[in-house]
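Researcher: I need the complex structure. Ligand is pyridoxal-5'-phosphate. Inputs:
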Amino acid sequence: MRKTVHPATWAAHAGGAKDQQSSGVVPPIQPATTFLRDTDYALENQSNMYQRPHSETVRHVEKVIAHLEGAEDSLLFPSGMAAVSASLRWVPNGGRIVLQQGIYWGTTKWIRDFCARRSIDLIEVDATDLAALAEGCGGKADAVFLETPSNPLLNVIDIAGAAEVAHAAGAILIVDNTVGTPLLCQPLALGADVVMHSATKAMNGHSDVLGGVLSARDGVAAWEAITLDRADAGAVMGPFEAWLLLRGLRTLPLRVERMCENAMRVATFLEDHPAVEAVLYPGLASHPAHDLASRQMQGGFGGLLSVLVKGGKEDALRVAGRLELFLRATSLGGVESLVEHRYSIESHTGLPENLLRLSIGIESADDLIADLGQALGQ
Ligand SMILES: *Cc1c(COP(=O)(O)O)cnc(C)c1O
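Model: Output:
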């Protein structure tokens, strides 16, 4: 399949895959863990010896994602956190990592533990302020890790500006693009070196596969170590999960389009509602980084938003409890809309008590708005 086709075409056709043996229009799953050698003990297929490093199903999905991301290469992992940890495990003892404040809690927690164990200098900064980011790098760092738009605060970081700052300090820039998706934001084109996704979220989109992916531009020095570590340490995705992920990816552009459209309508409705204190969504003109988000993202602002309900924790919980259509569950990026009171899960991280995070799905926006309206009290 020609690589010049639009992302929607590339995704729908799964990168032009079909089964060579059966002529089936979808790619096969190859579950074999080991592969044959001939009578001279040479591999019958030079690409395949043992599944840990060699899965054709996984390789195919990586090829599809790399193209969507504008990357030289992609690597799948069995979860988003396996991808986050792989993106930084090469940093030497005594090195320095600069981390954006207020991002996905699982990432912050793992990086803090990792750095403490390995005597790595960890500097956490407000990355919306590039001067603070530069100060955090302190002239020399190994890696800068950002998440934009961030979960659940929806902060937007200037990726091109951050790349300049990181590179000036000799660091690579890693961007968690889970909320942005490869369709709405392309961090590598903006100067980032490695992009990370929890494929559990919008990429798979059906709340039924756990996965993660890293993608890199050409010539990133750490990429070889990351690739080797995955094969040797063995944090690999199985062929069944990879195959399911590919099925999800085929509708990614369609789902993202609908989620963005729905999220924009829901955010606009909530912003005008008298029981709402504020809505955090980069698509709204009231968002502090709306202009930056408009430049840095194409085709929409994603399906994630947070709403501060007027009052306190009890008021937010009452609204969450009254919702009938939004499912009360963690995670994001699925076809079904979810609501989460993050404070109940991570009260120690300084999140507002009255914050509800909404992951907007592909339902009818009218139904979502009606549900929020009755829950907030009209
Ligand atoms: C969910 C998530 C992760 C972690 O991914 P898992 O697949 O749950 O391991 C990392 N970053 C962001 C922004 C996420 O939403």
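Model: Summary of the prediction. Residues 79-81, 104, 106-107, 147, 151, 176, 178-179, 198, 200-201, 210, 212, 332 surround pyridoxal-5'-phosphate (CB under 6 Å).
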